[in-house]
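Q: Focus on the shape:
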Amino acid sequence: MSTSFIIFIRALGLYALFTLPVIFSPVIYIISMLYVLSFGWFACALFMFIAVITVNTTSSFIRRMAVLSLAVPVSVAFAFQMIEVFGAERNVWHSGGFLLFPVAATISGWVSLMISATRMAASDPDKWERG
């Protein structure tokens, strides 16, 4: 569970770096970071839930990483939808160029996951190599 939280925190930092070019419009960058801090915990909760279930299965490391890799965009999409559900924005899926923000979040999550992949495999080789 702590590894999945570390993956999430690292992804937040990577997201801040990947979206840094938007700093030319500081208001958009600040709103983006506020949304990530406000609604990102939905993505964190869903990803951690999927990670806990995945780690406790008997499948191979490759399958687990595939499931976690798919969990990243699902979690980001869930958090992005929560922006609309809670009324912060309307029609988030029809926001044009602003859809690049969830794309950046997904890429950040994947990069963070791949950075942690070796740590996860080394932490308990028997757990990850079964199946």
